[in-house]
Design goal:
19% of the residues lie in helices and 44% in strands. The chain contains 2 helices and 16 strands. The protein has helices spanning 2-24, 33-55, and strands spanning 61-64, 70-87, 91-92, 98-99, 104-114, 117-125, 128-136, 152-165, 170-173, 175-177, 185-186, 189-190, 200-203, 211-226, 230-231, 236-241.
Length: 247
C-alpha cells in the first residue's frame, strides 16, 4: 500500500507542476487549471489511491470527502445482516473544525451484493464545476431495471447518509422496526454513534439476521466504508467537466 501511495503522490505532484507551469507562461488555454489545481488534488489523490487499492484486492477502504456529500447509486442491492440507526456524526468544515448538528442514517450490511456501483463527487476548480466519477461492475442506469443481477460483493459495508432512496419494490425480512439503536448490530458489532433509546432497525434474530432487497438505490452520503472484503469488477475513475448526475 505504501508503494501505491507514493506512486499516486508522485503522479499528482507531476500533474500539478505541469498545470502550474502552463498557467505561469502567460499563454491562454481556456480554463486556467494551474490556478485551482491545488484545491482538487487532495480529493482526487485520495479517491485515486482508493481505486488502485481496491483494484489490487485491498481488504478495507473508506470513501469520503471531508464536509461534502457525494452520491452513490446502484441498480439494486441485496443484503443480509442488515441494520440501521439515526446518529449525528462529526462532519468536517472547510476551516478544519467539525459539527455534529446533522442527523444521518448509518446503514450497515454484514454481507451485501450490488448490481453495479456509481459514485459521484462534485467539486469546483477556479470557479468551474467538475465531477469525479467512480464506477464498477455493470452500468448503473438512470431508471433502475425491474429485475437486477448483482455483480459486486462486499462484506461489512457501511454507509453514512442524509438520504437513501429505492426506486422500486423493497423487501425487508426478519427485521424489527423501532429497535433501540444500541441493540442494533451488524456482523456482531453495534453501529457507530448508536444511543440507547434512539431509533434503530435491527434483526428479529434467526439465521443470517435481517435481510433487505432494494430495487434501485440512490444515497446522498458523507461516508462509505468497506470494512471487509470487496470484489469490484471493471473499476473506472474519471473526471468530467460540469455537474454530472449519472455515470
Amino acid at each position: 500500500m505504501s508503494d501505491l501511495l507514493s506512486g499516486a503522490r508522485r503522479a499528482a505532484a507531476d500533474w500539478n507542476a505541469r498545470m502550474l507551469a502552463q498557467a505561469a507562461d502567460g499563454t491562454r488555454r481556456g480554463t486556467r487549471w494551474g490556478r485551482g489545481a491545488f484545491a482538487f488534488v487532495p480529493s482526487a489523490l485520495a479517491i485515486g489511491v482508493l481505486g488502485t487499492a481496491l483494484a489490487q484486492g485491498a481488504l478495507a477502504a473508506n470513501f469520503s470527502v471531508t464536509g461534502q456529500p457525494f452520491t452513490l447509486t446502484s441498480n439494486g442491492v441485496e443484503g443480509s445482516g442488515f441494520g440501521a440507526i439515526v446518529n449525528t456524526p462529526a462532519v468536517g468544515r472547510p476551516d478544519g473544525t467539525s459539527t455534529t448538528s446533522t442527523a444521518m442514517a448509518r446503514v450497515g450490511f454484514a454481507s451485501a451484493h450490488l448490481a453495479g456501483l456509481c459514485g459521484i463527487v462534485h467539486q469546483t476548480i477556479a470557479g468551474v464545476p467538475y465531477s469525479l466519477l467512480l464506477t464498477g461492475g455493470q452500468t448503473v442506469t438512470a431508471t433502475p431495471p425491474a429485475t437486477f443481477t448483482t455483480d459486486i460483493d462486499a462484506s461489512n459495508l457501511y454507509i453514512q447518509a442524509t438520504a437513501l432512496q429505492a426506486y422500486g419494490p423493497t423487501t425487508l425480512q426478519n427485521a424489527v422496526l423501532g429497535q433501540s439503536a444500541d441493540q442494533v448490530t451488524v456482523a456482531g458489532k453495534p453501529l457507530t454513534g448508536a444511543l440507547p433509546g434512539g431509533f434503530g432497525l435491527g434483526s428479529a434474530g434467526g439465521e443470517g439476521g435481517s435481510s433487505i432487497a432494494l430495487h434501485g438505490l440512490n444515497a446522498t452520503a458523507y461516508d462509505a466504508e468497506m470494512a471487509g472484503a470487496l470484489v469490484l469488477p471493471d473499476l473506472k475513475i474519471r473526471v468530467v467537466a460540469g455537474t454530472a448526475n449519472a455515470c
